[in-house]
Fold this protein.
Amino acid sequence: MLNVFEANNEVYIKEIEKGRIIPQTTKDTLLYSDIEKEYISNKMIALNAVVNGKNYHIKVWKSTIEYDELMEVVFVVFTLLLVLLFLVTAYINIKISKLIWKPFKSTLDYIKDFNVNTLHYKKLESNEITEFSELNSSINLMTSKMINDYNNQKKFTENASHEFQTPLAIIKGKIDLLLQENTLNEETMKLLVSIEEATSRLSRINKSLLLLSKIENQQYEKTDTVALLPLLEKVKTLNEDFILDKKLQFVYEATEELDFRINSELCFILINNLVQNAIRHNYKNGQIIVSIKNKTLIISNTGALEPLNENTIFERFEKKSSNVNSIGLGLAIVKEIAEANSINISYHYKNNAHLFSLSQFKNMVT
Amino acid sequence: MKILLVEDEIEMQKSITHYLGLEKNIVEVANDFNSAYEKIQVYEYDCVLLDITLPNGNGLDLIKTIKNSRPKTGIIIISAKNSFDDKIDGLNLGADDYLPKPFYLPELNARIKALIRRNNFDGVDVIIINEMALYPDERKVLIHTLPITLTSKEFDLLVYFIANKNRVIQKNALVEHLWGDSADQFDNFDFIYNHVKNLRKKLLAANCNDYIQSIYGIGYTFKTEL
């Protein structure tokens, strides 16, 4: 604390009458400093001492301000050092971990970019870190297996279709031949026609399922910009006879032109299925309204006087009518095509009409 | 007509040979790529019916061979694959037509006839049946040398009937011929009766013989052998 014999202490000595005893006290006191021009806190010892027979009153004090400042300085320096140390450590840490995780990051990027439908398949390279090398080689194993399986599946769907269509073609051919026999009576011929119809239906189901799996497997990669109005006009012409047969009123309410980024073959199937759907589930003298507004295509038709189930309408083999020829895959195909091309499709029932709205998120399209 | 059928499925071979043979066509068959290749080198055919998936080879490769050695030979691909790419490839290589399996034999017959007519007519393409003369290019019909007006669908129907004359044609085969795949979804084909009825009326009005006979619930026969 306060050492009497330390240098830099200030001392006050005054002779006092003999015999007066001032007990030694230590206290804090404020003294006016000429240098600082203010009262500053001091530690002071006061006592009396007898020297050469004279009694003296001695006060020794020392400013504590230096000590406070010292503490302050020490504190600041230490804090700065600590912060610096922390920053440097953090920086070095980040640098090192970046360096260390670089191979991992590239592996991660590879996985993110990986597309099973890719034509130019590139393997991950091994590197000097054993663990990452191991990771890469297992990922390589996995991806090559995936690509293999995918290709096998693709081949399978195509081959399956081929294998199904051939026996169906044989049955159809034989029925055509049988019908030419002069010995058949009408009943037999009708039976043959029924067999033929069932065969055609089987073949259609087969074709539709193949189409669905092709879309799911993203085998329609090439995309074009397809203008919807001319396409609608084409689809309408193709289905003219069916529209006339039901005496349907076909109305355009297009205020703008709309394009979809989509494979043109798929777009045709999409629109054709929706238009045929609108014709098929319509009643005589009904109406089909096609409108393009706010980048949304809406195909609406009159039909059943109650809303369809929004949740199941797009499901496979979900039949909406007792129609024998309907195989219940038309809207499932529509949904699949829409999803594969980031087209949002929704169903509403409004003012006694069934509405299908389509809009594409342009930014999501590559 | 001399036709080569390249097809590995024996029962398909038999059906097609039988149906085409009803009209005194000569139909030869090849079971695989190699025998097809040999036959093409040695003989000349009016038309080759070609399956793409063949034992020991791809049918597409035969197209070039045929087009190089016998450019006048018509080629119709009959494939179970029904793949858009195969169709485009085949047509680009020089095939004239593409018919996915399964098909109606009358449809195949009609396509063969149309193809051979296109490839072989001298001067004017014309089909003559007794008092009728059809000009497919101009879509014109003369009856007793007088023109009658038919709609596009009625004209197609008439050509199809004539190609398969004296055969029983199912109404579904007619529907598929006129509307193709897009007819798949529909169940009510009543308007096919209207088209046939109108065609028949127009022919009768021009003093044409009544060739079109309907077989109730089944289809039609275009009878020229009365």
Notes: Chain A touches chain B through 46 residues (CB under 8 Å).
